[in-house]
Each structure stands twice: as structure tokens, then as C-alpha cells.
């Protein structure tokens, strides 16, 4: 090699650097404003309080743990839609999305960077919400499962929400009714994930005989959904973002 020349970085190395740059930009912007995490966190916490108020007159015989998992995942789903929409709208309003499309960056790199960023913000909100959830809904009978069950199902479910949600938010960002379009698209597609995640979370909350088998059966559904839908989102993102 001639003196003074440098080897070109490999395609994999270049993609990794681009991924880190996009992800770092999203995280730094959020750390400066804290708009997304703050709005998502307040929305999730207020939703938990509203649930508790609505169930407070159900009577002492009713065990709120039986439906607590469903309420928790509904709160996370609607909270995620709020954050997903804000993240892409900010990108479009500030011209960042157009700049990314003009830059020599592979579209799948943009997808993974955006999805990981949304996953990080969603997990932060979930960490803030879980103590309030436990205080409001698990006081009567306590938590019946092993300690590792809740973090496992939350992480796996959040991966699916962040991945599919990033694709759908990108599709809806250029439409007139962004919030409406994202909701109409996301809720039906999330049904299989919610069904499996609620089953696994219920097993973790209630515990007892057969809870581990029910938990892993639900986790199998969550993992299958994540693999299939993330591969589909990865394949479609180049066409969606360029549309």
C-alpha cells in the first residue's frame, strides 16, 4: 500500500458507525429536551391511576391481579404510540428525516437505529411505571412469580412494539392524520403480541402451579411475533421510508 493512503472501512464497519451516529443523535436530542420520555412517563403513570380509580368500586371480592397484566400492556401500547409519533414528527419537522434520506446511509441502518432508540425510551418509561403498577394492583395478593419473569416479558414485548411501531410511524408520518393512521394500523397488528404478552405477564403476576409453563408458552408467542414481524419490517422499511 502506498504511503499516506488509508484502507477503506468495510461495509459492515461503515454501517455500524452510521448506526451509532443516528442512535447517538436521537438519544442526545432526547436528553436535551426530555420531551418524549416526560410525556410518555406522565401518560403511563396517569393511565395507571385512572385504571385504579375505575376499579376502586369493584368490591373487595374482586382480585385486580387477574386483569392487571392486560391493563399494563394496554398502557404501554398507547404510551408507545405517543412516543413513536413524536419521534418521527420531530425528525420530519426539523428536516432530519430528509437529510437522512439524502445521506449515503442504508435504509435498514436507519430502521435499526430508530427502533433501538424507541426501545430505549420505552424501557425507561416501563421502569418508571412498574413500581406504580405494583403499588396500585399487587398489594392485595402480592407478586406470585419469579423475579425474572416480568423483566423478560417486558423486554421481549417491547422489542416487538418498538420494531413494528417504527415501521408504522414512518408510514404514517407523511399522512394528514398521523395519530389516527398510526393507531388504526398499530392496534390490529399488535393483537397477537398483546395476547401472548398478557398471558405470560399474568402467569408471572399470579404464580402458582403451571405458571412457569404458561409463562414460557406466552413467551414463545412473543418471540415468534418478534422474529416474524421484525424481519418483515426490515424488508419493508426501504420501500416505506422512500415512499
What is the mean predicted local confidence, pLDDT?
86
Q: Give the DSSP E fraction (strand runs of 2 or more residues).
A: under 5%
Largest sheet: none
Number of strands: 0
Oligomer: single chain
Structure annotation, total helices? 8
How many structural domains does the protein architecture include?
Answer: 1
Estimate the helix proportion, in percent: over 70%
**Helix and strand pattern:** HHHHHHHH
Strand pairing plus helix content: what structural class? Answer: mainly alpha
Q: For the CA atoms, what is the radius of gyration?
A: 20 Å
Distance between the termini: 43 Å
- The best one-word shape is globular
Stretches where pLDDT falls below 50 for ≥5 residues?
Answer: 1-5
Explain what you see.
This protein is mainly α and 243 residues long. The protein has one domain (35-50, 64-241). Helices cover 80% and strands 0% of the residues. It contains eight helices and no strands. The protein has helices at residues 11-33, 35-55, 65-93, 96-102, 107-137, 149-172, 178-206, 211-241. The longest helix has 31 residues, at 107-137. The chain is globular, with a radius of gyration of 20 Å. The protein starts with 10 loop residues before the first helix and ends with a helix. The relative contact order is 0.13.
